[in-house]
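Researcher: Batch entry, complex prediction.
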Amino acid sequence: MNYKIAVIKGDGIGSEIVSQAMKVLDKIADKYHHEFTYQQLLMGGCSIDAYGVPLTDETIQACKESDAVLMGSIGGNTTTSPWYQLPANLRPEAGLLKLRKSLGLFANLRPCVLYPQLRNACTLREDISIKGFDMLIMRELTGGLYFGERKTESVDGVMTAIDTLSYNENEIRRIAVKAFEVAMKRRKKVTSVDKANVLDSSRLWRKIVIEVAQDYPEVTLEHALVDSTAMQIVKDPAQFDVMVTENMFGDILSDEAAMVTGSLGMLPSASLNETKFGLYEPSGGSAPDIAGKDIANPIAAILSGAMLLRYSLDLQEEADAVEKAVQKVLEEGFRTGDIMSDGCKQVKCSEMGDLIAERV
Ligand code: NAD
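Model: Structure tokens for the complex:
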């Protein structure tokens, strides 16, 4: 089949790591008789340099006309790059926020996997890391505290700041449906995280999640409070499969979960809308400190490509093949500098791409 993929390599290491992801996707196309047509687009600093804005309407339109978007990362050194002398709405990151909004991407998926081969990078105690873990945090991305009404004003002479946390049932239902759908493709367990002992928004969240669960009898649902979940992630991460939560809780928990894996260059992410369409990108940034040296770890970008296959193109077998190829290369002891350890063989970014593509 023919699929149209918009490619935004972006800035810094973006171009190096996305090229490796495309190399692996090309191998998949070859092996499984698909055709991927790429349309390369600019966003972030490179778009500012070319067009004076971090994201053009033409780029948004081209993304909308594709089956999925594969992205690297955007932005530069925030202290030295001239991009950060511009007003906030013209800086590289403004492009990404606008793109997410324009594409209606409300569900952010971050798998946090501890590969047995990288266990020594894990920041947890050995008796915990030995069990490994493979959780996926699904964060609501367009509602809640970050998008509610806010103001700072003087109340009876005292400066007072107010942020509003609001969710309606439709916003909760659509992310809950996504969580159960994704759980059906995994180990069929959903942990819904809230603060229902205190917040009205959480009590509605819990009620709607329970309603949605009725349509997925095969999936086990459990509820957990956000504070205890923060502890459980470091105490027993192996218990989690899909975790679904609102915007701010997800922001914090997904960084905590990413940290315990110990390797930023390994973590892919996806942001989905109500259809199968999604934007796929590594969790890390543009790493200007190592850009242009062919030493970045491309695995997060390659695994983002696997998520694209799984969630936007519904190509499960092909996605599995990419993930297995990554594991095989790790088993054989190949490492980029960021995950290097004794007894392993250090390779460059492009070599890592070749090795993974060869094993697909
Ligand atoms: P960063 O994630 O780019 O880098 C943090 C550290 O991790 C650096 O030492 C970097 O070398 C290392 N690192 C990151 N990815 C790596 C990889 N694939 N392989 C090996 N090492 C890797 O974060 P930062 O330095 O705070 O931000 C740099 C720029 O990236 C900023 O402009 C920031 O705004 C931007 N950023 C963009 C995104 C995005 O595009 N979604 C996300 C986060 C940060």
